[in-house]
Every structure is written in structure tokens, then in C-alpha cells.
Amino acid sequence: MIYDVLDFKDLNTKVSYNLFNTKGGVAEFHAILELTNDHSKFSAAEQFDKVNQSIVHLFLQPFLQNVSPALLRWFVSDVVNQAELIQLSDNVAVSIVQQSPLNGSKVALWIYGIENIQSIRTPDNAISIKRPGYTHHYHTQLFTTEGNAFQQTTSIFNNYIKSLSQMQCSLDVNCMRTWLFVHNIDSQYNDIVVARRNIFELENLIPQTHFISSTGIEGKYKYPEVITLMDAYAISGIMQEQIVYLKGSSHLNPTHEYGVTFERGTSVQFGDRRHVYISGTASINNKGEIVHPFDIELQTIRVLENINVLLVEAECNMEDIAQLIIYIRDISDYSSVNKYMRNQYPYIPMIIVLAPVCRPGWLIEMECVAIKGIEDSRFKKF
Asked: N or C: which end of the chain has fewer CB within 10 A?
């Protein structure tokens, strides 16, 4: 596992990255691309141009010679005006959400790349990445402009289920991860929770079986009518014995106990590595109670404790984290959170964005992806 930073000084950008590789396997690349501190003198168009140029420069680096981008998530400060500044690609999954980067810039980017991939765009606008043993499916920007939050969420999931079916996949077997971005989450989230729960029950996603790792967070799309926006990741060729759902019972309670339906984390075992997807995690205890109300620093520490418990359950630790996204409710908390995280985990590629969590008392939430090299002859390599 390699952690490093590239500084494109001529473009006023930097890339914090993690490069994972195993002998005989393919490389995986997670990176956070940000504008540097003198970004304020540039207009929105100039900032986006610098980021677009930086992506090109990045994938020309010798150590990424055979690595191609698979997923780009753009964090922007004004999606209605800025979406048109983003350069799209036919063979890359692109997600665009208004969650302002809190370093003061107008744009930042999470980049996920894979070595030696064959990507195709499906008729329903997903990106499918074919590997010898598996096909990885990224659906991004799933939305409808019709109806209220309940109706939009129901429609999005129904359409996603149909798309999975066309790939000979299902929601309960193949979907590993979802992200739900909610406009005005404080007032809309309950309707989304009910809609998702209803869909899950129809798909046999219930407390007695399992749910799906997820983040439900404030986020806005370019169309004002969109309340719910969803990204999702699924795998063809996966077997149930490759999947472990993480509980963290010493620190966290099952989500269904307070009416929501998602897994705290999911571990996926391949023949040469383990992927761990940690859902949006807040300062909560195993009774479902908020820990450290009104204290951003103590909530930050508790969130990290909760994440570590989940990682340990997957036989990983904080040093296996490939990327970390931090959501905070109050912009004034940025300085203290940033200082703490940079001091404690300077090597992890991370970004802090403005995005209220689904429960007002939670001041901060984090999600992450971890990767650990393993050897398991039962399963095909990644």
C-alpha cells in the first residue's frame, strides 16, 4: 500500500492518493484532487479547468501507466451553475453532487482507478467494468424530477432493480453499496427511509437477512426538482460466501432498531484482496444514542472509534483505508476537524465537505473504503 501526494504547482492543485497492488494482481488507485491554497484568485471556470487538466496530467504519471479512471465523484459548491464545467467521458462513471469543499475552493474530486480495465457504458447509462472473474457495475446520477421524496426514492430504486435484472443481477445479491444524496435532508429524510424500507421488504432485505451499506446525506443536484439522487455499486459473479456484513456491536446498534435499513459496513473477499465499504458513520453508541452532543471534537473521535471497530471486525485497521470522506453540518467546525484529521491521519486521502447528516444532533459523519491484500484460493482474484 503506497500513500503519497502529487503537487501540480503550475495548476494550483494537489492529489493525495493511495495505490494498492498485489503480486500477480491489478492495481487500484484512490485519490482526492483539490485546489491548493491560492485558489481564491481563480474564477469557477478557471478552477474547473485546472481540475480537468490535472486529471489528464495525473493519468500520464508513469506509475499509473496502465491505470484508467473508473469513477469520478465531483464535489462542487454550486451545481446548478457548475455542472456544465465538468468534462464527461463515455467510459467513466461520473457523479456530481453539491457538497461544497470546505477548503474554500469551488470543486474537489474523488478519483477511483483500476489497472487494465475494459469499461463499457450500458444502454441504461451505467458503467460496467469487466474483469476475468467479475463485472463491476457503477450506476451514478440516478434520479427523477417527478413526485415527492417518497415517490422519487421509490422510482429510483425500482428503476435500479430493473437495470440490475437486465445484467442478471439483483439488489439483494449483487448490490454492495449505495449513496443517497438528499436535498433538504432535515425535512425529507424520513420519507426516503420509509420508501427504501418498503422496497427492501419486497426484495427480502430485512433484519433477518441483510441490508446494503449506504450513506444518506445532504446533497443537491443540478435540477431543482430533484430531492433524491442515488449512486450505486454492484458486482456480477460475486457469491454470498464472499460477503460479510459488519456490525460493530460493541459500539453500534443494528440500524433497524431506529427505523432505518442499511448495513454499518460490508466486507467483500476476493482471491487476492479484501474490500471493505464503511457506511456513513456518526457519533453513536450501541443503544442508538448520540454520543457527545454539541461537541465536534469528541464526536470526531467517536466516529473514528466506530469506524475502527468495524474495520477490525473485517480484519483490517485504519492503515488499510484507501480514501475517507468527511461530512460536517456546520462550516465553522471545519478548522478543528481538519486540524485533528491531518495530525492523526496525514497519510489518508481525505476530503471534508459541507453536508448535514440525516440526524440533526450528529455534527459529523464519515465513510471510507479500505483495501487489504489477502490470499484466498476459494475465490477468483479481483
From this structure: N
CA of residue 69 relative to chain centroid, distance: 15
Q: What is the pLDDT of residues 44-97, one digit of tens each?
A: 999 999 999 999 999 999 999 999 999 999 999 999 999 999 988 889 999 999
| Range of weakest confidence among 30-39, 43-52, 68-77, 146-155 | 30-39
Helix, strand or coil for residue 267? strand
Residue range 1-120 forms a domain whose CATH class is: alpha beta
Q: Please choose, from the candidates 283, 278, 142, the residue with its C-alpha nearest in 3D space to the C-alpha of residue 213.
A: 278
Query: For residue 129, what are the contacts with CB-CB under 8 A and spacing of at least 6?
Result: 70, 114, 117, 118, 119, 135, 136, 137, 138
pTM: 0.97
Phi, psi of 33 (to 5 degrees): -105, 125
- CA-to-CA separations, 10 to 35, 37, 44, 118, in angstroms, rounded: 11, 13, 17, 32
Which residues lie across from 130 on neighbouring strands? 118, 135
Which DSSP state fits 357?
B
Q: What Rg value do the Cα atoms of the chain yield, rounded?
A: 19
Query: Residue 164: which of 175, 179, 151, 176 has the closest Cα?
Result: 175
**Residues 339, 341, 346: CA angle, nearest 5 degrees:** 105
Of 262, 256, 303, the closest CA to residue 284 belongs to 303
Tell me yes or no: is domain 122-237 CATH 3.30.1330.40. Answer: yes
**Lowest mean pLDDT: which of 25-39, 220-234, 249-263, 336-350?**
25-39
Contact 269, 246 (CB under 8 A): no
Q: Which fold has domain 239-382?
A: 60s Ribosomal Protein L30; Chain: A; (3.30.1330)
